[in-house]
Amino acid sequence: MILKAYLKKRLKLLALLCAFALIFALVLWASALPAGAVGYAALLCAALGLLAGTLDFFAFCRAHRALADMRGRVSVSLDGLPQTGDFIQADWRALVLEAHQACRAAEERAEAQLREADDYYTLWAHQIKTPIAALELLLQDSQGPDVQALAAELVKVEQYVDMALNFMRLEGEGSDLVISRCALAPIVKAAVRRYARLFILKGIRLELGSLEGEALTDGKWLGFALEQLISNAVKYTPSGGHVRIWVQEGPAVLVEDDGPGIPAQDLPRVFDRGYTGLAGRTGARSTGIGLYLTRKALTALGHTVSLSSQPGQGVCARIDLSVKPLDPD
């Protein structure tokens, strides 16, 4: 493979050398020189050419290996880029170095801008929780038919703020996973408790099956994923419907509702970022981010999530916790 590439690169030079040899052979033959002298000269030229070609081929191989070794770390450094005495190749080398420096400078600017944006939105997400908490206190002391509805909308606002914060955490390079053996019942109950007002407001019946079981996971991020699934179940379940949550052996956590279900053509894409599906476009407002973050968080934990549904028969979401979590480091 390397030899073929080398011969292709030197094809014009080899053709030129062959043409020179042919010219000299014809001239010497026309001069009626002894065949032995001609053959001896040709042999010396061939030996010298073979030696020069061999040395040039080895230099070509060394340059190829050096460049191949750099492929995996070209984004970090160009240390070890082969030197060359060829004027044109030296120009190419200088061009590559300048392009690399420009790319690194652009990356550093982009990283700095991303850090600034991350710091800003993180600060905003924490600051906005203060007026949310104040509104919750005001609603607790208020009376009237619209109080429950306002409180339910406030729950949604807090959920969206948490989604924004967790989106930045999951999309960033850092990780705050803390893997430990966690009981599943407290995690499920905490997630349900957060949406209690929405269950009450819509008159949705909650059925909690067996919640016994433990899993090697991060309780905070598993709770976040469960909250997204419960939020979807409440959002799409009609008033007077029911949502069922239980733990299977394995273990696995399941969230089932009796909403409109998901069309078959939407099922393969519901976890894609920004995909809202038919229900999100025609009915309830959907951002297409909740399920994307759910899968991303669970994947980081080494778990899997899947949805099964038939149109008109609701959705059953299943979080498989039997997979060994990934090392957060």
Structure notes:
The chain contains 10 helices and 7 strands. With 329 residues, it is of the alpha+beta class. A 5-stranded mixed β-sheet has the order 2-4-5-7-6, with helices on one face. A hairpin with a 5-residue loop joins β6 and β7. α5 (147-171) packs across α10 and α8 (219-236) packs antiparallel against α10. The longest helix is centred in the middle third of the chain and has 54 residues, at 87-140. The radius of gyration is 35 Å and the shape is elongated. The model has no long low-confidence stretch (mean pLDDT 80).
Question: What is the element layout, followed by pairings?
Answer:
Elements: H1 2-9, H2 11-30, H3 35-70, H4 87-140, H5 147-171, E1 180-183, H6 184-194, H7 196-202, E2 205-208, E3 214-217, H8 219-236, E4 242-248, E5 252-257, H9 277-282, H10 290-301, E6 304-309, E7 315-320
Parallel strand pairs: 2-4
Antiparallel strand pairs: 1-3, 4-5, 5-7, 6-7
Helix pairs in contact: 4-5, 5-10, 6-8, 8-10
Protein traits:
single chain, 329 residues, alpha+beta, five-stranded mixed beta sheet, two-stranded antiparallel sheet, 10 helices, 7 strands, 60% helix, 11% strand, elongated
Strand content: 5-15%
Secondary structure: number of strands: 7
Please state how the strands of the largest beta sheet are arranged side by side.
Answer: 2-4-5-7-6
**What overall form do the CA principal axes indicate?**
elongated
Could you tell me the mean pLDDT? 80
**Uncertain spans, ≥5 residues at pLDDT below 50?**
none
The CA-CA distance between the termini, in Å, is: 40 Å
